Amino acid sequence: MSRRWRDAPLAVAFLAPSLAVLGAFVLYPLGRAMWLGHQRCGATGGNCQSNGWDQYIDVFRSDEFQQAFSVTVRFALLTVPVGLALGIGLAVLADKHLRGMGFFRTVFSSTVATSVAVASLMWFFLLNPSVGVLADWIGGVAKDPGLLRDESTALWAVAVSSIWANLGFTFIVVTAGLQSIPADLYESAYVDGAGGWMRFSNVTIPMLGPTLLFAGVVLTSRAFQSYGEFDLLTGGGPNGSTTSLTYLVYGNNSIIKNNDGLQAAVAVLLFLVLLVLSVLQIRGLERRVHYGN
Amino acid sequence: MSYCAAVADVRLTSLTKVFDGVTAVDDVSLHIADHDFMILLGPSGCGKSTLLRMIAGLEDPTSGDVLIGGARMNDIEPKQRDVAMVFQSYALYPHKTVQANIEFPLKVRGVSKPERAEQALHAATTLGLSEYLDRKPGQLSGGQRQRVALARAIVRRPAVFCMDEPLSNLDAKLRGETRAELVALHARLASTFVYVTHDQVEAMTMGTHVAVMSRGRLEQVGTPQEVYDRPASVFVAQFIGTPPMNVLPPGLADASRYIVGIRPEHLMLESTAAVRATVSLVEHLGHETLVHARITDRDEVPAVVARLEANGSAPGVGDEVGLAFPATHLHRFDPETSRRIDDRSAVSAAPGAPAGAGVEERA
Question: Per the domain annotation, does A27 fall within a domain?
């Protein structure tokens, strides 16, 4: 018996705890959801029966899924680039050895410790047409009917809340990335005559590559899985304009809220979309990212 | 605009740098002539790198002036000083190709792309890098990376090159080769080099002048030979030379009241000499033999080292030998200040004088 096989039981024993957790909390629910997703249920959610795997195709082609998919993609396109840009901006500003900078670092990263519920509630009141401070400042559509109640602005308003809530995470990740850039790269560029923008574009951004790829993938994944903001701020409305894929799955106002089969089908499709997207992001960007020597 | 002067001498006047109450450079005045290859030599933490960084514009002096080509540079940005810097870590941009790394200083200055490529190729060819232009630094050996850093420095033809221990990350063989290449490069470029190192071999072999520093202060400036032959202090005497100069307390090597130094090659082993010692270690190095000996009844004095020719007879460990100190090769230092005493007429040279009470002074 080769050593490889002799060591196999020991290897399995070491892996067992991780495999048990992975199996119980990831693989089993995923398999169960996939199984549930192919079942067609009655209008009230009962009487679910296996009837081939066509339901996935039907759901994918449905107007409801397509609209929720569109909302989700637009939400990600709004939140990820802006969130990254703001995170980089704040991290670069705070990456200076100035007195009192620790205070600003704490403030900028504080949203990491704020739950989605608290953040959403805060923005709900800020944007409330009758009592909201921001609504007062902005005026116009913010006062009547309110940014969260207007079809053309609701998604933007939710996006702002989400960007704010995720800013702490991006700030912390980018700050850590900045601190790993060797100071002599900046000094070398400085002696060579590079100004602030040249140093930022030729040293900071390229050296942050792996950090930005990581933050981008995580933020995109978060955007596709956002639920709390939609549930608390708009309830998927008005008129479905903020019904994201996750809201379509869980939301109180979702038209499939009682249909376990359809809900599971949308959830599985969301998983597949995210899988494809993450692979594309990592494959596409990795070639352009430098991981050090 | 560039402040590049026709004459790129560097003058430092009473330069001081204090970091959070700690004085890194203490009132240093130094003139580095145009086209000079000046070595700033000293142990770690002596302030030599800080001094170099003040010349390059990476640190602001706390007081004193930096003048390049006669113009005061204290408030001038590095890019306007016409200074290039080579870092110990090379500071290459890991995401850029060798070509892009070399071109970077030209790109910053708005040089057109074709001209950049031409000048980068020229610099790369000068340093034997033309085959590697498309590679990233991570794909190069340490020696090649070091050359890329040099190419990036020479590509814009600065008046002054600042180099901060550029060879210390190379292995011994490559370091030896690169030393000779840097000397050749200095001759070819006819620029002013300011070179920081803690390696006295680099200082002795490369520099036209050496400035030895200790604890933020300048100990001595001179040609490598001057610094070796006439060290200005006990510190310099022991820092330059391998093995270092033997330093003996007053009254041991001669009858004077001064600390006496003698290079290992000048210390004689004579059976009849009055100062007796016991051999504690013999090192056969092939081309020479080093004999370490402890002076009898003077345990507080560190072992002295004598350098003998390899083919001569050497004593064995445990043998008793006599130590003779030829008067013409003695260096005398003030016990109070550790500075060199040049007035030899005041000293009655008496090799092998009996040991007297004395306090050993060490830097």
Answer: no
Give the CATH number for residue A238. Answer: 1.10.3720.10
> Residues B266, B333, B253, B243: is their CA dihedral positive or negative?
negative
Using CB atoms, which residue from A188, A198, A202 is nearest to B85? A188
Is A41 domain-assigned? no
> Which neighbouring-strand residues pair with B320?
B278
- For residue A19, being part of any structural domain is answered with no
**B76 to chain A nearest CA, in Å?**
11
Using CA atoms of B257, B262, B268, B273 in order, give the dihedral in degrees to the nearest 10: 10
Please tell me the pTM assigned to this model: 0.79
Q: What are phi and psi of B183, to 5 degrees?
A: -65, -45
Helix A209-225 to helix A63-94 angle (10° resolution) is 140
CB contact under 8 Å between B78 and A190, yes or no, is yes
* Closest residue, chain A, to B97 (C-alpha): A290
Q: Is the dihedral of CA B350, B354, B359, B363 positive or negative?
A: positive
Whether the predicted interface score ipTM is above 0.90: no
* Residue A88 exposure: Cα atoms within 13 Å on the Cβ side: 18
Range of the domain at A197: 56-286
Tell me, what DSSP letter sits at residue B46? S
Q: What is the rounded distance in angstroms from the CA atom of residue B250 to the CA atom of residue B246? A: 13
Nearest CA among B24, B116, B90 for reference residue B63: B24
Provide the phi-psi class of A224: left if phi over 0, else alpha when psi is between -120 and 50, else beta: alpha
Number of domains in chain A: 1
Closest residue on chain A to B155 (Cα): A192
A172 in any annotated domain: yes
Q: How far is B156 from chain A (nearest CA, A)?
A: 9
Lookup result for tokens 């850590």: A176
Per-residue pLDDT of chain B (363 residues; tens, 9 = 90+): 333 445 689 999 999 999 988 999 999 999 999 999 999 999 998 999 999 999 999 999 999 999 998 889 998 988 888 899 999 889 999 999 999 999 999 999 889 999 999 999 988 988 888 889 999 998 998 888 988 998 999 898 888 999 999 888 888 888 888 888 889 889 888 889 999 999 988 999 999 999 999 999 999 999 999 999 999 999 999 999 889 999 999 888 888 889 999 999 999 998 888 889 999 999 999 889 999 999 988 888 899 999 998 877 888 899 999 999 998 999 999 999 999 987 544 443 333 333 332 333 333
